[in-house]
Amino acid sequence: MGSLEVGSFSLSTTLRARFSPQPACVTRMLSNGSAVHMEPWRKSSQFKSLFAVFYPRLIYPYYQTHKQMTKRYSSISEAIMTSETKKITSNLLVGNEILGVLLLNLGGPETLEDVQPFLFNLFADPDIIRLPRLFRFLQKPLAQFVSIVRAPKSKEGYASIGGGSPLRQITDAQAEELRKALCDKNVPAKVYVGMRYWHPFTEEAIEQIKRDGITKLVVLPLYPQFSISTSGSSLRLLESIFREDEYLVNMQHTVIPSWYQREGYIKAMANLIEKELEIFESSQQVMIFFSAHGVPLAYVEEAGDPYKAEMEECVELIMEELERRQITNAYTLAYQSRVGPVEWLRPYTDETISELGRKGVKSLLAVPISFVSEHIETLEEIDVEYKELAMKSGIRNWGRVPALGCEPTFIADLADAVIESLPYVGAMAVSNLEARQSLVPLGSVEELLATYDTKREKLPPPVLVWEWGWTRSAETWNGRAAMIAVLGLLVLEVTTGQGFLHQWGILPLFH
């Protein structure tokens, strides 16, 4: 994984107002009706997260194995956690210290005119489209080409949900609710929002943090599960910003890489699922369908991305919480939003919905498990495309769990996570997998990611040398040469506005 280049981002020097009144954080999509009984589908997954080495002992005191996690949830009450949190907060902020919390998120186009530049920012990120080091000079031309090709269809999607993404408004509302929750816990803090691909950019949030004189900073990505393409990309950008700024280098800070296993988050998700199940006439016969945002399979198998492992464990923890409430519905997990010809994490959401219909499932409750805010993947992809597919596949009763938004249990848990991380601001944290493991410096984003990189399994290249004849080696290298030639032609078309694709009307004329 290489360093990120901000490239042609247009950054303003003033951060827009963070805490203006916002609309309700969540919406609901539901359908009533009968259901048929299905035996629960279970997956016995006992594993440790590949990224567990980064979790400080205090923030995740019982993070060991899946069995130990279950013991944690059955034995610790919210009252005890609140009491412990109050003990933690005493004497943490002294003198003139000012605490800041930086929420990191993806961002989204707020108008249809924003769609194409937003897509360019997205695909120009080397953690989204991972080109070999030799061809990284093609990153921006390729991003320009892909964004132009995809913009018309993407605009249709955003137009169908009101002409833009509501992600910024919801994230602003979450930031305000988190500020209030911290204040209620006697931890005054300023909460900032930094988006990766659209306004307010992370760079804008950092400038405001500096103007406000923040002395302690907690970085909190709004992605429950860690992935190279989400939290990893945001943290790499942040690392590059910190490295080049003397003020930031000297500012104490810490990072909460992921928080999918926190008790408050698990209970908040279970609360929403339980509430939506009550709407169905035969709630015990409803299939709970967890749909997570997908990532390319190579991220997991070649780059060591812990996203799949964390997602599967997250689903298991939610189902165990539901079982304690006597909810034992069948459930499954699939991945949505794949792009391009490469293989992504399976099973795919659309294929799984069709398969469930063929197997006789009549009632389905969709759960957007990797999203904490409503945006195009929930409002258009799930609510429109997947619902329509479900109806065509024979599923008669459809429901959808809303994204967490400003759900009180969720916000309160985020506040506790921030408070529990404060002893580690600028300090060393110990992995609780084994006491003998090396210390992990959470006070440095750069070292955090460097440690993660050392955990990746690097696979040898499948073909080392070129060979003559009809061999696998020759075919591979000939294919690579053809790809280079095609990319070169595409770059020429995009940069000059001339060529066969323009003459044939496949690409629009532009300069």
Could you explain how this protein is built, in words?
Helix 13 links the parallel strand 7 and strand 8. The N terminus is likely disordered. The protein has 511 residues and is of the alpha/beta class. The longest helix has 25 residues. Helix 4 crosses helix 16, helix 9 packs across helix 11 and helix 12 runs parallel beside helix 13. The protein is built from 17 helices and eight strands. The chain is globular, with a radius of gyration of 23 Å. The strands form two sheets. The chain has a four-stranded parallel sheet with strand order 2-1-3-4, with helices on both faces. The two termini are 32 Å apart.
Name some characteristics of this structure.
four-stranded parallel beta sheet; 511 residues; disordered N terminus
- What best-fitting shape do the alpha-carbon axes yield? globular
Proportion of beta-strand residues: 5-15%
In DSSP terms (H or I, runs of 4 or more residues), the helix count works out at 17
- Describe the largest sheet: 4 strands, parallel
Q: Radius of gyration from the CA trace?
A: 23 Å
Order of strands across the biggest sheet? 2-1-3-4
Task: Report, as a whole number of angstroms, the end-to-end distance.
Answer: 32 Å
If you average the pLDDT, what whole number results? 76
Low-confidence stretches: 1-84, 428-443, 455-467
Short précis:
With 511 residues, the chain is of the alpha/beta class.
Secondary-structure map with pairings?
Blueprint lengths: L65 H10 L2 H12 L9 E7 L9 H9 L15 H22 L6 H18 L5 E6 L6 H10 L4 E6 L6 H16 L2 H4 L2 E4 L7 H15 L9 E7 L3 H5 L5 H18 L6 E6 L12 H10 L4 E6 L7 H17 L4 E4 L7 H14 L23 H10 L17 H25 L3 H4 L8
Parallel strand pairs: 1-2, 1-3, 3-4, 5-6, 5-7, 7-8
